[in-house]
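for the writeup, i need someone to sanity check this before i put it in the appendix. the sequnce is what the collaborator sent (i think, or maybe the updated version? ugh). structure was predicted straight from it, no edits. if anything looks off just tell me and ill rerun, i have time this weekend
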Amino acid sequence: MPSPRRLSHAVPFTGRVFHIDRDRVRLPNGRTATLDIVRHRGSVVLIPQPSPDEVILIRQYRYAIRRWIWELPAGTLDKGEGARAAARRECEEEIGLTPGRLRKVGEFYPTPGFCDEVMLFYVCSALTPPTRKVALDPDEQIEPRSITLRRARALIARGDIVDMKTVIGLGLLR
């Protein structure tokens, strides 16, 4: 099947983490539509494991949903930054530990209907204190906590973990 053809293009918003493209397109069925697409550099989702039976989650206030939630640490790739470097940096920033080993375990699009963000999932192990001073982003207030995988899965089953990337990330562990 042919792809839609772009007829016009505008960028109505540019922010710190993403921008929005507004495209007028001709669809394969001949109709035209205006599509707003969130363009994002991509992100890494960390599954930090101090041991094979434990995972480190963070508790963080998410303004968009106006509540505190438990989730896997994650962050946006900086401009020009590779995913492995971002995973190492985010691990140090969000949980205060440096991964000795990184293993990519998945790659998913969380909202492909309107956003091109790809989330790259990494298991982080052989965790040690960082060799340099690291700081949180100005908009972050994070509380890391190590829990057993069994407890994390029970929190999902009870509906206490509501973050989709965390549910997916924990499901990737075998």
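Residues 104 and 122 are 4 Å apart (CA to CA). The chain has two domains: 5-40, 43-171.
thx in advance!!
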